[in-house]
Structure formats: C-alpha cells, structure tokens
Amino acid sequence: MAQDSAAKFDASRAGEYARQSRIALAGYDACHELSACLLSATLGAGKPARVLVVGAGGTAGEIIAAARLEPEWSFVAVDPSPPMLDLARMHLIEAGLSDRVETVLGAVCDLEPSPSFDAAIMIGVLHHLQGDAAKRDILEQIAMRLQPAAPLVVAGNYRAYASQPLFMAAWAARWRMNGSGPDEVRAKMSRILQGAEPPPSEEAVISLLAEAGFEDPVRFFASLFWGAWLARRIAATP
C-alpha cells in the first residue's frame, strides 16, 4: 500500500506539490501551524519530545512549524516516495532544521515497533489509502509506536467527493481564482480525485481512530472536504 501511494507522488507531482497543496487546501499553512500549537498545548510548552511524522514528504510544513515553536522537539519523518522525501529534506535544510530530523524512506511499519514517540502527526495521508483496512492499519502502526496517552494529529479529506457537488464546484473555483483555465481546472480536479478514497464522514474517521487505539478525538480545523483532529493514544490500563 505504501508503494501504491508513493507511485502517485512521482517527480513531476513532487515538483508542483507546494503550489498545488496550497490551492487545493485553503488554509494549508494554518492547518500545519494549528497542528503544532495543539501538540504543544497537549505536551506542555518547552518540554523535550520525540515526534513521529507520517507522510512527511513535500513541504515539510508540519515539521517546520512544530520545530520553530518547540526547539526541544526532535522528529522522525517517514515517507514512501523518494522525490517527496527529497523535497522535504531540501526544505528542512533551507530552514536550518535538518539536524533535528531523521528522515526514513519507507513506511511506519519499517520503524522499530516500540512506544518510543511522545506524539505523532499524519497530514494528507489517510484519503490516499484504499479501503478501511489500510486506513486502520496505518493508524494501528502509529499507535503501536506512541507512549500511552500520547497525542496524534491526523488531517486529510473526509466525505465522499461525489456527495458534495457544491464543495466540488468551490474546489474548482479555487483553481480559477489562482489563474487556471478550464482545461487546467479539469486536469487538476482529475488528479486530485485519482485514486483518492476519503473516509465517508467524520464519524468514520472517529471510528477508525477508536478501532486503532485512540480516544477523545476533537476536530480543530476544517476546509471544504478537509478536516484535522487531535486524538490520544489510549492510556495503558493499571
């Protein structure tokens, strides 16, 4: 499944990722910044933490926002796409943060299966995985590596795209607003939809989190089809 996701983000798509993401998701940077703020508020400002970042390739925006807010945090960034991970490494070097980030080409299951992380972030991944089993599996893999009660930020598209024609039209308008003509709008929308399978509802996201070992999810950001939640790894029983 990781290989299937990686194939979608080849060199050509990686090259346009930053611009495309900020058009496709109104509030792209705000989502990353709020993710960092929620994790900081949960863990406590100024405290050391080891943070797992899943699907970190591309802009590395979630890492840059969190690292600048919390200078005592270190990161392990995992992504299955070589071009996307290379792009993230470039942004981390430019931001002067590469010494605080270990990058891993691969999947979460390639990491040591022990609870060695204080928090985790997974942004823009879940809707690229086909079927509930794959979605549940990646959440379970994350949970396995988190300390009891550790926070997870998970963000991505939810709701079936066809269920919201008004949102689809607004999504296309975002591209027109940024200078795209009719043919380019159709191409961009087709690429966005290609192979994507969002959870059909917020209830489905919450159910997947619960089944994977997370509790107390709260949504803190929304933008058309996009949502972001903070949940906690279920604490170990006494």
From TrEMBL:
Occurrences of domain Methyltransferase type (ranges): 54-149
Keyword set includes Transferase: yes
Gene3D superfamilies referenced in this protein's UniProt entry, alphabetically: Vaccinia Virus protein VP39
Keyword annotations of the record: Methyltransferase, Transferase
Domain of life where this protein originates: Bacteria
GO terms, biological process: methylation
Keyword Secreted applies: no
GO molecular function: methyltransferase activity
Database matches in Pfam families: Methyltransf_12 (PF08242)
Protein name (database record): SAM-dependent methyltransferase
Organism: Prosthecodimorpha hirschii
